[in-house]
Amino acid sequence: MKFPRKHSLIEIAELIDCNFIGDPEFPVLGMNEIHVVTPGDIVFVDHPKYYDKALESAATIVLINKEVDCPEGKALLVSDDPFRDFNKLTKHFKPFQGADKAIPDSVEIGEGTFLQPNVVLGNNVKIGRNCLIHANVNIGDNCIIGDNVIIHAGTVLGGDAFYYKKRADDFDKLLSGGRVVVKDNVEIGSNCSIDRGVTGDTIIGEGSKLDNLIQIGHDTVIGKQCLIASQVGIAGCVVVEDDVTIWGQVGIRSDVTIATGTVLMAQCGVSKDTTPNTTYWGTPFGEVRTKLKEYAAIKKLPEIVKNLK
Fold first, then answer.
1. For a 10 Å CB count at each end of the chain, is N or C smaller?
2. Domains detected in the chain
3. 164 and 146 in contact (C-beta within 8 Å)?
């Protein structure tokens, strides 16, 4: 998320009422999660395990809960609760905007696009040319839809990220200020849910096709020409590269990369990065021929045990 204008370090510190280390006029251009930060961004960290990762990231302002040595060329915002203060910044720069009608005046809709009854669009939504948006689709604030896109009934684009911090007596929600971006020539089936990014974009790449009943988490990036079957669940911050096929009921954990040309057979449980142009199967998942050999070997176990007696 980039701010509408450049801010100074002291401005941001005063906004969230915290101390800072660095030049008071140090430039602050935006805020982002660690996997998408660029110079000028704020990143937050609240656990010693991740201090080095945050301090060594591309972010030049680190919102942290301990005074540490400040790396050269960077600045620190020192807070007793970075999670809370990151939310304060989201509320300030991306406040909730209620809508008083189904299609606000700020929406842009391209030539040849048709909206079926009961479509609800958020503020500042942009939809390209020659799209078909079926009944009861909900597209949240600031989302962008390309040209020649079809979205079937009941799908929700731009719901909040499933991102919580465990507190002593409750869960604290990380607020979502990002977007969903759907590129050209995409088709999305009925009753899918694609969450907005926390500060960045959840992206569905050009020409990809999604079946019904698919969940895609915050900040996940789906590449070009991907095919995703029904009941797939993809967690947040996943990268699915181009020409990937994902069959029904596959589950993919967060922070993994599904390499170009990967095929995930039905009901795979994916827990780590894949190798390009490889087919996988099973839970825990593995290369399909290897897994089939393993299952064949397991079938022989009763006979082996019997012969050992």
1. C
2. 2-93 (3.40.1390.10), 108-292 (2.160.10.10)
3. no
Q: Give the pLDDT of residue 309.
A: 66
- As separate numbers, helices (DSSP H) first and strands (DSSP E) second, the chain gives 5, 34
Model confidence at 300, in pLDDT bands (50, 70, 90)? Answer: confident
Instruction: Say whether 88 sits in a helix, a strand or coil.
Output: helix
Kindly provide the residue ranges of all beta strands, DSSP E only, lying in 160-210, ordered along the sequence. Answer: 164-166, 171-173, 179-182, 187-188, 193-195, 201-204, 209-210
3-state SS assignment for residue 222: strand
Q: Return the pLDDT at 240.
A: 98
Return the SS3 of 12. helix
Cα distance between residue 309 and residue 302, in whole Å: 11
218 is a catalytic site residue: yes
Q: Which of 7, 134, 152, 218 is catalytic?
A: 218
Length of the chain, please? 309
Tokens of 75: 């600045």
Please check the confidence at residue 220 and state whether its pLDDT lies above 90.
yes
Is the CB of residue 139 less than 8 Å from the CB of residue 155? Answer: no
Both structure tokens of 7: 């801010």
pLDDT in tens, 130-168: 999 999 999 999 999 999 999 999 999 999 999 999 999
Task: Determine how many CB atoms are found less than 10 A away from the CB of residue 117.
Answer: 8
Name the 3-class secondary structure at 10.
Answer: helix
DSSP code of residue 49: G
